[in-house]
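Exercise 7b. C-alpha cells:
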C-alpha cells in the first residue's frame, strides 16, 4: 500500500502543473478536457466527444490554440499533455485548422478580435516586441463551409411542442417561432401581449413550460430570448437575453426562480422578485448557476420538493445539484450523478405519489431505454427496453433490435404512471412504476390509427387526466410551409376504457384546433413528411471505434457492482459505492489517493477548495451525500472555516492533519475511476475563484489515480 501511495505521489506531480495559458482562453482550453486521455497517450485515436469539442474550439476561438502551441510546459490546469499528439489532433480528428507555424512563438495572441474582422476569419497579430512594425496575417476559414453550417442550423427541423395548464385552463403549442395559446375557460384563442424592449427574432422555440402554480409560462429557443409570461393575462412580464441558444427551461415550485440551459452546457438562473404582482419587470440578465462543460443540456427539472435541480445532457449524464438558498451565487454542491445510459438523454420526469413526495426520476434516451433512478444516491433502480414497443423486435437470436429514441416522458400527476412517446412509434405507451419494488413495466400500448401521427411532445393536466399530444415540425425539407402541428387527445388514460378523442370531442373543439394547428385539417402528405423528417433527424452518433460509454476525459469505462441494471444483457451496471472493487493489488482507491495528497501537500493549510474536493471524494467513496460526523468531509469543512479566522500559519490545520490514514477513516472505499476524478476536479474548480486545481492537491491525486488504474 505504501509503495502504491508513493507511486501515486510521483504520478500526481508528473501529471500536475500550474496553468500558464492566457486568462481569456482559460475556459476554452478547459473545454477540451475530453481530449486529455488521448493527449496523454492513453488511446490510439481521440474520442468522438474530443473531436467534436476540438472542432468547436477551432471554429470559435482558434487563437486560443496558439497558447498550446506556444506553451513550453505541455500542461494546462494541472493536466499534462503530449505536445506531439496535440499538434496531430487536427489530423486525427480530420478537422481543418490554420497552420501552427502562424502562431507567434515570441508574443501573446490576443483573446479578442480587432474591430471589422471579416466574417469567417480570425486575425492573429504576429510580431516581436523589438520590432518597429507589426505584421498582421489573416487566417481565413472557408467562408462557404461556415455559411453552409449556418444554413444547416437555420434549416434544422424543430419539433412541435405542447404544454397544458396544471388546471387545464389553457393549452400552449409551439411550432417554429409561433407560440399559440388557447383559453379553455373562455373557449377562445389568446392574443399575446409583448411590450418588452428586447430584440424581435423569428427562430424556433425549443422549450415551453407552465409553472406548477399555473401562474407563469416560459418560452425560449434559438432566438436566444427567454420570455416569462403571465398565464392569466398573457402579458410578457420579462425578457432575458441569453448568450447562446436555449435548449431547456425549468421553473421553481414557488415561482421565485426560472432556470434555463443554453447550447454550451451552461445553466443560468433568473430571480423573479415581484413577478407574481403581474407587472412587467425591467430586463434582467441570468446568473451562472452550473455548467456541464460544453455538453448540450437536453432536459432541466426541479425535484418535486424543490431541493434539487436536475440537468441531463447529450453525453449520457444526469447531474443532480442541490439548489442553493442563494442561487445567484451559483450552485456548488452536487448531490449525485445518474450514470448508466449509453446514448444521449432526451427527456426526464418525476413520478411521485402523495405518500412519496420526493418521487423517483425517469429518463428517456437514444439508447432505446427508459430508466428509473434514486436521485439521492444516483442509483439506477430499473431499466425498461422500449424498442420492441416500436415494432423493432429481434428478428432472430443473432440480431439486436434497432435502437430508437425516446422523445418525451410525461408523468401522470399523483400516480405511479407515465406516458412515453417514441421517435418512430405512431402512438404512446404507458409505464407503471412500482414504487416499493423499484421496477418499471409497460402496462398499455395505445396506437393511433389512420394518419401518420407520431407524437413529438406530450403533456397532461392534474385536473382532467387528459393526455394531450402534438405531432409537427418547422423547417421541413422541401416544404414552403413554415411549420405545422396536429393535436390529438387521449381520455381515461389510466383505465381500460381509454380512447382517442375525435376532433369534435376535444375540449375547445374545432376552435382550439384552428388556433393550435393553424387550420382544422392537416393534409396526410404533410403528416407523412413530418414523420419521415423526425425518423431521420440527426442524433448524436456513437464513436465509430467503440460503442461503450465514455466519461468526460474520453476514457472508455466499465464498472461493476451489486446494484446492477435490471435489464438482462445490459453490460453497463451501476457500482456499489461502498465496496472497493479491487481489480488488482496495485489499483489505487479513493482513500489511498487522499493519503497521497497528505504526503505530497501535507503542510498546506486546508482551504475551501480543498474541503470541497475532499467532500466530493468522500461522497464518491461512500455514496453518501452528507458528511458523517467526525468524517473527512466534516473535518475538512471545519478546518477551512477555522483557518480563515486564524492569523498564524503555524496554528492552521493542514492537509496532513485531515487526510493522514484517510483510507482507514473512510467507512467505505472503492477503486478510483475517471468518473470519480471528474467529480472531484469539478468540485475543486468550482470552489476556486481562478478556476484552477491545486498542483499536487486532491483533484490531481484523484486524476493520477484514475490514470494509473486505467493503465493496469
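Sequence design result:
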Amino acid at each position: 500500500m505504501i509503495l502504491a501511495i508513493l507511486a501515486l505521489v510521483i504520478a500526481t506531480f508528473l501529471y500536475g502543473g500550474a496553468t500558464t495559458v492566457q486568462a481569456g482562453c482559460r475556459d476554452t482550453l478547459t473545454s477540451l478536457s475530453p481530449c486529455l486521455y488521448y493527449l496523454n497517450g492513453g488511446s490510439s485515436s481521440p474520442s468522438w466527444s474530443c473531436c467534436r469539442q476540438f472542432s468547436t474550439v477551432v471554429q470559435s476561438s482558434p487563437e486560443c490554440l496558439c497558447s498550446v502551441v506556444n506553451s513550453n510546459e505541455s500542461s494546462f490546469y494541472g493536466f499534462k499533455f503530449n505536445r506531439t499528439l496535440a499538434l496531430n489532433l487536427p489530423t486525427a480528428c480530420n478537422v481543418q485548422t490554420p497552420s501552427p507555424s502562424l502562431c507567434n512563438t515570441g508574443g501573446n495572441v490576443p483573446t479578442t478580435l480587432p474591430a471589422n474582422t471579416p466574417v469567417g476569419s480570425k486575425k492573429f497579430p504576429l510580431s516581436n516586441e523589438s520590432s518597429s512594425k507589426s505584421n498582421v496575417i489573416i487566417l481565413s476559414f472557408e467562408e462557404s463551409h461556415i455559411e453552409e453550417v449556418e444554413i444547416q442550423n437555420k434549416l434544422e427541423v424543430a419539433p412541435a411542442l405542447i404544454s397544458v395548464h396544471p388546471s387545464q385552463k389553457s393549452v400552449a403549442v409551439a411550432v417554429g417561432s409561433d407560440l399559440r395559446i388557447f383559453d379553455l375557460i373562455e373557449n377562445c384563442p389568446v392574443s399575446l401581449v409583448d411590450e418588452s424592449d428586447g430584440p424581435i427574432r423569428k427562430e424556433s422555440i425549443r422549450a415551453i413550460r407552465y409553472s406548477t402554480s399555473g401562474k407563469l409560462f416560459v418560452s425560449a429557443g434559438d432566438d436566444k430570448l427567454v420570455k416569462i409570461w403571465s398565464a392569466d393575462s398573457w402579458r410578457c412580464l420579462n425578457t432575458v437575453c441569453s448568450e447562446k441558444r436555449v435548449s431547456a427551461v425549468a421553473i421553481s415550485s414557488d415561482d421565485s426562480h426560472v432556470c434555463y440551459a443554453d447550447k454550451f452546457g451552461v445553466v443560468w438562473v433568473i430571480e423573479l422578485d415581484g413577478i407574481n404582482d403581474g407587472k412587467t419587470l425591467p430586463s434582467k440578465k441570468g446568473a451562472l448557476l452550473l455548467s456541464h462543460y460544453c455538453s448540450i443540456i437536453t432536459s432541466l427539472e426541479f425535484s418535486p420538493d424543490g431541493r434539487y435541480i436536475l440537468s441531463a445532457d447529450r453525453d449520457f449524464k444526469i447531474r443532480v445539484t442541490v439548489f442553493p438558498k442563494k442561487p445567484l451565487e451559483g450552485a456548488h454542491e452536487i448531490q449525485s450523478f445518474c450514470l448508466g445510459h449509453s446514448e444521449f438523454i432526451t427527456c426526464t420526469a418525476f413520478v411521485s405519489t402523495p405518500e412519496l413526495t420526493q418521487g423517483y426520476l425517469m429518463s428517456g434516451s437514444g439508447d432505446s431505454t427508459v430508466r428509473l433512478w434514486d436521485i439521492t444516491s444516483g442509483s439506477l433502480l430499473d431499466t425498461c427496453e422500449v424498442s420492441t414497443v416500436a415494432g423493432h423486435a429481434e428478428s432472430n437470436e443473432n440480431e439486436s433490435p434497432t435502437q430508437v429514441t425516446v422523445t418525451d416522458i410525461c408523468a401522470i400527476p399523483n400516480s405511479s404512471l407515465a406516458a412515453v412517446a417514441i421517435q418512430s412509434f405512431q402512438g404512446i405507451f404507458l409505464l407503471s412504476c412500482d414504487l416499493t419494488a423499484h421496477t418499471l413495466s409497460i402496462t398499455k400500448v395505445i396506437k393511433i390509427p389512420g394518419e401518420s401521427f407520431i407524437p413529438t411532445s406530450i403533456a397532461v393536466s392534474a385536473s382532467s387526466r387528459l393526455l394531450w399530444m402534438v405531432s409537427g415540425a418547422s423547417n421541413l425539407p422541401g416544404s414552403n410551409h413554415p411549420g405545422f402541428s396536429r393535436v390529438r387527445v387521449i381520455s381515461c388514460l389510466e383505465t381500460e376504457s381509454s380512447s382517442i378523442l375525435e376532433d369534435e370531442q376535444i375540449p375547445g373543439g374545432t376552435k382550439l384546433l384552428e388556433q393550435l394547428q393553424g387550420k382544422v385539417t392537416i393534409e396526410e402528405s404533410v403528416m407523412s413528411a413530418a414523420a419521415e423528417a423526425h425518423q431521420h433527424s440527426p442524433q448524436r452518433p456513437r464513436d465509430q471505434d467503440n460503442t461503450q460509454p465514455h466519461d468526460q476525459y474520453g476514457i472508455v469505462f466499465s464498472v461493476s457492482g451489486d446494484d446492477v441494471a435490471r435489464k438482462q444483457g445490459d453490460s453497463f451496471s451501476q457500482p456499489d459505492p461502498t465496496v472497493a472493487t479491487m481489480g488488482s493489488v496495485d489499483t489505487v482507491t479513493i482513500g489511498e489517493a487522499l493519503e497521497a495528497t497528505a504526503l505530497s501537500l501535507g503542510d498546506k493549510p486546508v482551504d475551501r477548495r480543498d474541503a470541497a474536493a475532499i467532500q466530493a471524494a468522500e461522497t464518491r467513496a461512500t455514496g453518501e451525500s452528507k458528511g458523517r460526523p467526525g468524517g473527512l468531509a466534516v473535518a475538512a469543512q471545519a478546518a477551512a472555516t477555522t483557518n480563515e479566522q486564524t492569523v498564524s500559519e503555524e496554528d492552521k490545520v493542514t492537509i496532513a492533519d485531515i487526510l493522514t490514514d484517510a483510507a482507514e477513516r473512510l467507512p467505505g472505499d472503492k477503486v478510483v475511476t475517471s468518473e470519480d476524478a471528474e467529480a472531484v476536479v469539478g468540485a475543486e474548480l468550482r470552489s476556486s475563484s481562478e478556476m484552477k486545481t491545486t498542483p499536487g492537491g486532491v483533484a490531481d491525486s484523484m486524476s493520477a489515480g484514475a490514470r494509473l488504474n486505467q493503465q493496469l
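Instructor comment: The two ends are 16 Å apart (CA to CA). The CA atoms of residues 121 and 250 lie 37 Å apart.
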